[in-house]
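I am writing to request your help with a piece of structural work I have in hand. I am sending you one protein, given as its amino acid sequence and as whole-number tokens for its backbone shapes. Kindly check, if you would, that the fold set down in the tokens agrees with what the sequence suggests. You will find the record immediately after this paragraph:
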Amino acid sequence: MAKSFATFLIICPVAFFLGILYSSFPYDYAILWTSAPTSEASFALLETHLKTIHASPPLIPRILHIVIATGLLGFFIKLYKPSEANMLFDGASLVLYVIGITVYVANIVKGLRVVSAGSYGEQELVEGETAVGTFVEGQVVGREDSLRVLSASNTILALVLVGVLVLQAGQWYAEKKEKQELARFKSEEEAASARRTGSAGGSGAERAASGAAKGGASSSSGQKKKQ
């Protein structure tokens, strides 16, 4: 019962996060997944969307962080005194979940701050000149590339969360098959035991009938001798 409740605590937050990412997919699609050239309007829409998210009331990120903690609690409950299946499936799911948290903190949160500020990692060049963009290994990544990185981070996070769901579904299927195999083995053992009991009972009855027949024959022969 506790394991099922812990699985519920894992699946619900993952589904919640996937819903949030799906709500951003219309903005990310125009940036990453279309073959047509990305228009400035698409970048502007994504930028406005991200600014709106970052400017949301403090209650919104608090709820998000509570949901993240709920998922971690579910993993800790399932991994308390774990079985071999728990270590395999839940351990791998926890690794993916932590990777998702890392992507959220390192890429998405940082990217939201950059987009909201509109700085995109401004770098000082010479007196008074600046290069607008994120400075990465000697190169300046501009506004459009920074927005693409955020969209790609959403895609990576979605794949990681889908991986968690696949592992949890795989664990459920493996446990179901194991229970079916145990039930089949138990039924076969009971049937074999019943056959052995029936065979022993039948042989005992045959021995009793044979003994009774021999006794009847000996008594009849004894009476003939007396006569």
Summary: Confidence is low (pLDDT under 50) at residues 123-139. The longest strand covers residues 134-136. The helical segments are 2-33, 40-54, 59-78, 84-117, 143-226.
